[in-house]
Design goal:
7-stranded parallel β-sheet, 163 residues, homotetramer, globular, 19% strand
Chain lengths: 163, 163, 163, 163
């Protein structure tokens, strides 16, 4: 036992997108996850399949930490790459927790669920970056590649990183 | 005391929109509320100001019942025209409850919070009607007037009215 | 159309208890519901079976208004005597909304779910009345009959009734 | 970049207790946290002060990982020893998430908030261990020391550890 040093809170970057996706979108999400982990941030997502799974898989390739905030009541629903699971049991209302717990959100593709998270993020004043193509909503930042999206997300949260 | 007849569940129509608005939007919301009450449905909203207050005011003009699902932890935050208050204390996550508890949603103006409710409603498969102008999202129904919006909301929930 | 008078917010009294119960407990819950309605308050409950159903049934016998805050995502899960349903879709976390939305809580029998609502109510500073027998927790008020419990609940919220 | 090995989900042990406490209780909580980290589980708590802070501090002494599920809307409210913060913004309703996300709960002292978490945990079928003295509720396991409590929590979740 030793006296620990105060935790230096890592950034928490949320990755949002559809729960089912093709291989092209999957690759984009994986690259987002890798880049987030490389930069030392925690990858936060909804913990299920599709974009969420691919991003978590990417993060684990780089030794990152992954947090999944699940809608259901069973931890077993988490994808294989989730380190820490919040089992919310609160359905779609958990989308608000994903937005609120992220320093910035990165959207990869996605449908109405993703749109709700984008909107909640913007409402809360969080930086929201969309990897093109994707939802076009005023106030969103757009990036041409996964790496640019993560770069942008970090830049936009620069003065908020230490807590 | 007498044996009651089984409650015939009224439709619950959610009205969503900005918490602060000008008189033009206010009038639109009031007309939406009046029309909902005339048709015997419960008006459901977020319970605060702006569009929410105007719609509830309209409903009370016609003797309707109003339900407000508040984000905060104090019932006193409800506007003056709310009959029944759900004091959620859960912030933005309450938007999901508004969408989930409504048979249909009618949006009057509104910003990111409203957009999140529209998206959640669409995700849940609820009919969403926007009084023009307003958010343009694929899957939304559009109406040129408050009365047309309510008419549309009722039509789209026709086979779901009895429970 | 006429200008409505400001809503005089009714008290909202929460009735909590097991989702399945025998006829003796059922009768107690029904009497609680009747007494709440007679006094003009809204009966709030979890919207399901057992004590929740019996209390709502009692309230409807006296022409009261009943609000059910359901754990699931389907309004159809509400019992037959619920006028207005909040479809929370948030599972056990909805217990906090029942406590927060009630001016006072009355517990009839009940197990761990009820205990969680009692504890949340006490934490929030709400009066909690238990119809004997029932959970024994410091800070709870105890009543020998349903009528006494409702009488007590009203007395303990006397100065909080108008908003 | 390399292909990661499937995450071996760690146990998540929730520590619950009052948000303010004296040094004796503080020491108990710290010992609980140390023991949880020594055994390789994630320490989950409400992220605030008192027992939550002491337990997280203990876990960090042993190099553990700490997860805080905060009631408020600001990550800055987390205590200094929280690695990963879920910023729920949903007030007391977050207690349900703490219970649902924990494989087992360990209570150290605590008042009504803690009691609500104990009750929710029991309702969800989770093992709940109380470090003596503390709430006496049927169905709870009791332990004479922090170390015994953690030992018991691990034993009671033995067959649930792999996912």
């Amino acid at each position: 036992m030793k006296v620990p040093v105060k935790v230096e809170a890592r950034k928490q970057i949320g990755v949002i997108g559809a729960g089912a996706c093709g291989s092209e979108v999957r690759t984009l999400a994986e690259r987002v996850g890798r880049e987030i982990a490389k930069r030392g941030a925690v990858l936060l997502c909804g913990g299920l399949g599709g974009v969420m799974e691919a991003a978590a898989y990417g993060a684990k390739q780089e030794g990152g930490i992954t947090l999944g905030i699940l809608p259901g009541a069973l931890r077993e629903e988490a994808n294989l790459w989730i380190d820490i699971a919040v089992v919310s049991g609160m359905g779609h209302a958990r989308n608000a927790l994903i937005a609120q717990s992220s320093d910035a959100l990165i959207a990869v593709n996605g449908e109405y669920g993703t749109l709700s998270e984008i909107a909640l993020g913007l409402k809360m004043g969080k930086p929201v970056v969309v990897v093109e193509p994707g939802w076009k909503i005023e106030g969103i930042h757009r990036a041409k590649s996964p790496e640019e999206a993560v770069e942008l997300a970090f830049r936009l949260t620069e003065n908020k990183g230490t807590y």
